[in-house]
Amino acid sequence: MIKDISEKPNNLEIDLTGPNGNAFVLLGYARRFAKQLDKDPDEITNRMKNGNYDNLIAVFEKEFGEFITLYR
Q1: How far apart are CA 28 and CA 4, in angstroms?
Q2: For residues 54 and 57, what is the distance between their CA atoms, to the nearest angstrom?
Q3: Would you list the domain boundaries of the chain?
Q4: What counts of helices (H) and strands (E) characterise the chain?
């Protein structure tokens, strides 16, 4: 059976309570994903750093939430 592409699960999951939830790790992911999606990594990471951890997560989710699932 061929399924609709919208049923495809996200490729990557990040557990924010583990080591991958570290702000520096997330900034690294953001740079890599931005380059892969032909977005400006500096602009995105600067917005991520312009606030507290919740802001960092919110910007990450806005930019990459379509492709990545975050867990708290």
Answers
A1: 31
A2: 5
A3: 12-71
A4: 3, 2
